[in-house]
Write a structure and sequence with these properties.
With 145 residues, the protein is an alpha+beta fold. It has three helices and eleven strands; from the N terminus they run H-E-H-E-E-E-E-E-E-E-E-E-E-H. The strands form three sheets. Strands 1-11-10-9-6 form a five-stranded mixed β-sheet. A four-stranded mixed β-sheet has the order 3-2-4-8, with no helix packed on it. The chain has a two-stranded antiparallel ribbon with strand order 5-7. It is globular and about 45 Å long. The two termini are 23 Å apart.
């Protein structure tokens, strides 16, 4: 499968959207139950969300998105304070902050969306995020990086 993905996504430049664990697979490596190689398409690591007083892990529920690149086509129609639905215990920490498209606050900033060239990933679940999720999916379908 990786060979086909490399051909279609990296060589042919087709847009790619990783959702939740799919976003985490874009990283260089993941640290869930050991250290595991990722696709290394967006350099960085996947690490456990730190446990903080008053916050539960997994992070589960609605959280506001903060656009770091508000003019990006994937965020078209997504206003300030828009909420998305998250379910995760691990977070992608990109090596280059320029790859961050949006963050959310859960006891500190967490990557909510990443983008690099024709690659995009969202940590939240657009299929559970009502109008915001539908907008993101529609934007992705129209995206021509």
């Amino acid at each position: 499968l990786e060979e086909a993905l490399v051909r279609w996504v990296l060589e042919d430049g087709r847009p790619f959207l990783g959702i939740c664990v799919g976003m985490q697979l874009l990283a260089t490596e993941g640290h869930e139950h050991g250290v595991h190689r990722g696709l290394d398409w967006i350099p960085g690591t996947v690490q456990e969300i730190p446990v903080r007083p008053g916050l539960k892990v997994p992070h589960m529920g609605w959280n506001a998105l903060e656009a770091l690149r508000p003019g990006h086509p994937l965020l078209a129609g997504i206003g300030p304070g828009a909420h998305a639905y998250f379910v995760h215990s691990y977070q992608l920490r990109p090596s280059d902050s320029a790859d961050l498209l949006a963050i959310t606050d859960y006891g500190g900033p967490l990557a909510a969306a990443v983008v690099r060239n024709n690659l995009a990933g969202v940590q939240f679940h657009p299929e559970k995020s009502q109008a915001v999720g539908l907008a993101i999916l529609g934007n992705f379908l129209r995206w021509r990086p």
